[in-house]
Write a structure and sequence with these properties.
88% of the residues lie in helices and 0% in strands. With 82 residues, the chain is mostly helical. It has one domain. The longest helix is centred in the last third of the chain and has 37 residues. The radius of gyration is 17 Å and the shape is elongated.
Length: 82
């Protein structure tokens, strides 16, 4: 079960890094066009970049909350069994 959390964490960090880099730092025109098309046609480039950075931050923060909850429940189960 722990290896699944590890692989999920690696996938989450990889997603956050790729979205943050290509969307927020490099500002890839194809990704910006895709976000503008899906969310709002009148969106500026800066708003699309903020969406990229926000999604990468939210992915990492959600994963850290899940791992925090999982680690605390595992710890309480181990203490309960002892």
């Amino acid at each position: 079960m722990g290896i699944g959390y590890l692989l999920g964490g690696v996938a989450c960090l990889l997603y956050a890094a790729l979205v943050g880099y290509f969307g927020g730092i490099k500002k890839s025109p194809g990704l910006l066009k895709l976000v503008k098309m899906k969310l709002n046609k009148n969106m500026s480039d800066d708003a699309a970049v903020k969406n990229f950075l926000g999604s990468s931050r939210s992915c990492v923060s959600c994963w850290s909350i899940l791992v925090y909850i999982w680690s605390n429940t595992r710890r309480s189960l181990i203490n309960y069994r002892s």
